[in-house]
Amino acid sequence: MSMTYRWIPRGPDDPEHTRHLQEALNDLPHPLARSLALRGITDLDDARHFFRADRADLHDPLGMADMPTAADRLARAIDTGEPVLVYGDYDVDGTTAATLLTDFLRRRGVNASFFIPDRYEDGYGLCKRGLNAAQERGAGLVVALDCGITAHEEAEYAREQGLDLIICDHHTPKDTLPGALAVVDPKREDDDYPFTELTGCGLGFKLVQATLARRDEDPAAAFDYLDLLGVATASDIVPLEGENRILMAEGLRALQQTDRPGFRALADAAGLDLPDITSTGKIVFTIGPRINAAGRMAHASTAVELLLSDDYATAEPLAAELESLNRERRELDDATEEAAVEKAERQITSRSPHALVLYDPNWHLGVIGIVASSIVERFHKPTIMLTRNGDEIKGSARSIEGINIYNALADCEDVLTQFGGHDHAAGLSLTENQIDAFRDRFDAAVGERVTPELLRPSLKVDAEIDLSVIGTIDDRFWAVLRQFGPFGPANPTPVFHARELAVVGSPRTVGSNDKHLKFKVRHRDQPDARPFDVIGFNMGEKLSVLKESQREGQPLELLFSLEDNTWNGRTTLQLKARDLRLESE
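Now predict its structure.
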């Protein structure tokens, strides 16, 4: 199903900033200067920081609320050889965070073990079973990473059991904080740390930095974990600005060169070449799903064991297991998505809802979040997928741009037993007899927030490009544009708008079920100019538009981004179509 998008110029921008950047950066092409200005870059100094992400620009971790207390307690555990339990979460962020801190402690002689909750037995977050495990293993200190910010009961239980608890979480706190020894979360209202969007793994990294400082160790030791940080930062879909941009850029480079046996074995099992992982997207679609498959299909501890492996021989069978689980997960995704699409279409036909709440007691808890994202992409409505887990109904929520799903769920708090998450993604639980009431309440909560504009997806355009200007997209243009990366939330791949295009040659569909488009374009007033190759993923249905453009001699308008296309060892530049339409005369 092909979406009809609104094309919205990004802005407002100050033309003076664009002009100033063009001059300051040696006659930088206007489309690139405007793209920079739209990212809040207004002068040469800003541009230097943007293009040269530098670890020297990272903030002092000890400026974060409760971090000095946390670092002092962890340093004491290292100094005295006290056993520590590292408590993670079962997604990529949580497992990489647990790996990072466990490895850091073990390298300093600490008897550090880890605990990852079982998605089915324990659910999300801190659980008493994990705290009991700490006691059984003789640990007096528990460090919870990527979870715990709403665990008031569990923090009280830890105190009763004589356990010191450090919580490092990046999720939104409630009005009161859990009664732990230290609660490190830059989203705390009383925290003036300058950057609030770190991942759970990022907070583990900050705790390591702070602990190194407290022990007068070389602070550079924290950068041994940049490969883990890169995978977590890409996979957790956090804004790629501020510290995240630095950690992501450095993390990508570290992952390409990593000698961590777990990553090497994982890449080999998947047929990947680590040096080829040059973008956040390649992590999101290759490394991330394989790590996630452990917690979705079996138990996430397998992923941590893999990443902690000291040698390739230990890592290889664990990587093979994750590869197998990921194949199984993909098959389950496809079957679940097919069923969910049917339910969504029936719900849309019968009630014209603002949001979709889909329930099947037999859906697999490990894949409902992935499928919810696919349903949002297909129908452009906030979506919640629900399934039964024991006596409870568990759900994964995903949203569209402009609708804060966490706030919408907060409006329904009285019919839920638990919920938590971010603006765009959340988890929840409720009792089965509340599903109908919740569906109505959630639909109303979204209805209060939605506007007609939000219901039609939009594509935001950085700048217009006139392809009739020779050299508009030359080697320098592409060299500068590549340095805009890594791309992701808050730093999206620039999208350009070209008009007056002629479709050249024979456009065609490619891929299974003719899903994709391949064609060539050039400016219609330059019949001798070299045409640009264009690929349009999932745009096969628009072949008729291209043929009409040729048949009627009507020019084409195209929204596109630019990317490398490597084929048979040769790399060329191609336009990646985002949307296209006939130009109205």
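The mean pLDDT is 93.
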